[in-house]
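Homework help board

Subject: predicted structure for assignment chain

Our instructor gave us this sequence and asked us to write out the predicted structure in token form, then describe one feature. I got the tokens but I'm not sure how to describe them. Can anyone check?
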Amino acid sequence: MLLTPEDIVSIGMSMKVALTATALSLPFGFAVAWLIVFKPFKGKVLLEVFVNLPLTLPPVVIGYFLLLTLGKNGWIGHLLAASGIRIIFSWKAAVIASATVGFPLLVRSIRLGMESIDQQLIEASRSLGAHWYDTLLTIILPLSLRGILAGSSLMFARSLGEFGATIIVAGNIPGVTQTIPLAIYDYASSPSSTAMALSLCMVSVIISVVVLFLHELLSRKLHRGRA
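My token output:
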């Protein structure tokens, strides 16, 4: 396996971006899933459509919208620039791109976990006078752990392989924003770099296998704990 120092940096950047995107999205994904499953309100269909929209849009389109929003002429980017904060073409932009693309997978998995909870348990807690946050912390959260785990694993894997949105909003800057997919793209454009591209592909496969293995291991432990 042929890996250059730049490749090692790209691997570390991919892990950094994927972990950060997943960690930052997790509380928001849990909150959105909870709203969709347990809170009746007008406009719920619009919320579901908005959350799932990144699943149907090409990642390049998502990246372009983020570029327009976070760029110096965008309304968010203008406010950030006034505060001296730069997002575009930084690793933070790669995090935002990965979080946007992977967020629907996170919400969907957590939602499925919440929908599998026995409603009688929730009704019993309410009949005993428990506040909504007590029910959330003592019943919904523990019984949603498998969905949270599944969603986090899916989002991490999706963030690890994100390419289209990242290259638009963060660029392909070696040592700054270049992740594994972007480095493979560079190598694939040169016929003499096939071995380097294959090496990074193998690294990506190994990381994905490890993530899936840990997911299955933790899922089985949670299942045994419930049993």
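Reply (TA_rk): Your tokens look well-formed. For the description, you could write something like this. The chain is about 80% helix and 0% strand. That's the kind of observation they're looking for.
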